[in-house]
Design goal:
Layout: H1 2-40, H2 44-72, H3 74-92, H4 98-126, H5 129-161, H6 164-184, H7 199-216, H8 224-244, H9 253-256, H10 259-275, H11 277-289, H12 294-301, H13 303-318, H14 324-342, H15 351-378, H16 385-414, H17 425-451, H18 456-459
Helix pairs in contact: 1-2, 1-4, 1-5, 1-6, 1-11, 2-3, 2-4, 2-7, 2-16, 3-4, 3-6, 4-16, 5-12, 5-13, 5-15, 7-8, 10-14, 10-15, 10-16, 10-17, 11-12, 11-17, 13-15, 14-15, 14-17, 16-17
């Protein structure tokens, strides 16, 4: 028993550390975007690619790597991911121009996808079903702690040491994670499943995602819509390939025959599609419209992820006792209300009111996320944990990417070739109001899937 407890502690410590590090960097970079825009002279669309490139890379590799991790072993993939992520993060801190930074963010996203797809299976494999909600809740809380600290610490670092210090400050944490993984994590944590990687399916999937995302910021160009349609066609071919392949990257039957799994993942996709661009948009709003410094903006933006951090372990533990879909659906409704309220903010809106709305958003997301993740990981067989985690992480990252795609599309229509700092304030406010209305509507639509998924207790009796 003591050996088991030691294994559990090691797995949880490593998962929590990496789960903190990557969101910290995402939210920290968001607050530094105006400083990056200024140094590298980037227009609105190019600036959004500093965020989108990382998310696109993560999304492209998550499913193939989820399958590979099931075959080769979760620890092997996790080790490679944290090493690659740490090296790329160090290089981001010394990037000489915007294009190099975007390329390094792609490599960073690859490293992140290797850890994202393996951390949940490692946790689930060493904890009994009755404790999964609690442990996944702690892990999700680490994600939100990273999101909480990112704007605050990132704002301070940007203001006093420059935006590069955000990347460089993460390198020591990455090194600590590498040491822990190699010396504290056991080899036989998860079951390895015999199989092969379907390279044709991986190619369809990756090329399709890249085409759709790249075309979204170029719809005003002649190749934009044809490239978008080509991307959709490639994803259709991916689904066809998965159905006929002996070793599919993704088991389509998980979506067609497992309603609980399918609807929980769709709910996650919709929730992230609606909410992720919030920090990106509010960071620009607070610094451009309200005239706050990066540090002041970061302090205000802490309100939302701080509430997520506080509520996630509680909601996760609660989902071991009550039906998760009840909690998750309530969270989505609250998030939707918060997004619609943000559509009414202006230069005259007092800070306390902005903070109150962000707190409301944090409550909604905190109540949604852990119960939803508990449902996803508890609705599949043990041999499918890797692909389930990969699917869940893919839905999260694709949702985040869709959120940024929508923001990029609206910005490309409002500010063609223009720097955000030079854009008319009234025009900028019109664009973010439209984005918050779109986001609130998307979130509201997701309530159906969250509420209609079915009961986890019928699948796993308590």
């Amino acid at each position: 028993m003591s050996s088991m407890n030691s294994t559990q502690r090691s797995a949880l410590t490593i998962a929590v550390l990496t789960s903190f590090l990557m969101p910290f960097l995402i939210s920290g970079v968001n607050i530094a975007l105006p400083a990056i825009e200024k140094e590298f002279d980037l227009d609105a669309v190019a600036l959004s690619w500093i965020v989108t490139s990382y998310l696109l890379s993560s999304a492209v590799f998550l499913l193939p790597l989820g399958k590979f991790a099931d075959i080769r072993g979760q620890k092997f993939v996790f080790q490679g991911g944290i090493i690659l992520f740490t090296i790329a993060t160090a290089l981001c801190g010394i990037a000489p121009n915007g294009l190099t930074l975007i390329i390094l963010r792609v490599i960073q996203g690859l490293g992140a996808s290797m850890t994202l797809t393996t951390s949940a299976p490692i946790l689930v494999s060493v904890y009994p079903p009755a404790e999964r909600g609690k442990v996944l809740g702690i892990n999700v809380a680490a994600v939100y702690l990273g999101l909480s600290m990112g704007p605050f610490i990132g704002g301070m670092l940007t203001q006093y040491f420059g935006w590069r210090s955000i990347f460089l400050s993460c390198v020591p944490l990455g090194i600590v994670a590498i040491v822990l993984v190699f010396f504290k994590m056991k080899n036989n944590l998860t079951v390895r499943t015999p199989g092969k990687i379907d390279h044709i399916g991986a190619l369809y999937y990756s090329a399709g995602l890249i085409a759709i995302v790249y075309s979204s910021s170029n719809l005003n160009k002649s190749f934009g819509w044809p490239l978008m349609l080509a991307g959709i066609l490639l994803l259709i071919l991916f689904v066809v390939q998965c159905k006929k392949s002996a070793y599919p990257i993704f088991e389509i039957t998980l979506l067609t025959r497992n309603r609980l799994f399918a609807f929980s993942n769709i709910a996650a996709l919709i929730n992230y599609s609606a909410t992720f661009s919030l920090v990106f948009l509010m960071s620009l709003f607070l610094q451009k419209i309200k005239g706050f410094t990066p540090q002041q903006s970061g302090t205000i933006l802490v309100a939302q992820p701080l509430m997520m951090t506080i509520l996630s372990p509680f909601a996760g533990k609660l989902s071991d006792k009550i039906e998760p879909h009840i909690l998750a659906t309530s969270g989505m409704l609250i998030s939707s209300a918060g997004l619609f309220l943000l559509a009414f903010i202006s230069q005259q809106t007092p800070v306390y009111l902005i903070v109150a709305i962000l707190v409301l958003m944090g409550i909604g997301f905190g109540i949604f996320s852990s119960p939803n993740m508990n449902t996803i990981m508890s609705s599949v067989e043990k041999r499918q944990l890797g692909i389930a985690s990969g699917t869940s992480a893919t839905m999260r990252v694709v949702g985040q990417m869709v959120s940024m795609m929508i923001a990029t599309l609206v910005f490309s229509l409002y500010f063609t070739g223009t720097h955000i700092k030079d854009a008319d304030n009234a025009l900028f406010m019109s664009s973010i109001r439209l984005l918050f209305i779109i986001s609130g509507s998307i979130c509201l639509a997701g309530v159906y899937f969250s509420n209609s998924r079915g009961n986890l207790r019928k699948l796993i009796p308590v």
